[in-house]
Design a protein that fits this description.
- The protein has about 160 residues and is mainly α.
- It has one domain.
- It is about 60% helix and about 5% strand.
- It has a two-stranded antiparallel sheet.
- Helix 2 runs parallel beside helix 6, helix 3 runs parallel beside helix 7 and helix 4 packs across helix 7.
- The radius of gyration is 17 Å and the shape is globular.
- It starts with a helix and ends in a 7-residue tail after the last helix.
- The C terminus is likely disordered.
Length: about 160
Amino acid sequence: MAEARVEYRDLIPRIPYVGGREPFTRFLISTAQYLALYKVLKSRGLSLEESGQFIYDVSDRLLNAYPGFLLRFLSGSIFSRKYIQKVREGAEESQRRVYPGNYVFSFVEDDGVEYDYGVDYIKCGVCKFLEAEDALELAPYVCAVDILYSERALACPKIHEM
């Protein structure tokens, strides 16, 4: 862990600035944490697959340690009108491509049946960051953790009117 902290400290200045917008800034910070851990595991001889599984397992255990009320809050917040409007505005802003390391995406309106809203990524900030760090191979594992978080949030009862 001490080695991973040193790696993370060194990565912090290289995290792309994406305008301070959430959740994308948070995604890049998490990616830097995973990347720091990956670099240490790789230096110790672990394969990409072993490192990716380790990162996934650590994330799963961390999520399992979250209290139920926190997961319910997170779940509710991603379906609040305010958050959805923030994502919609973020999509419009991303089309201007002001920040080179940022995501570029479109907002997908809810269909009233299958989903509440969606995001169609055209350019992925995580992939750009990992590629700049010569670690693009880690991207599928970072995505798997993102899916894990999303599925866990979706499994909680939602509070739609926050």
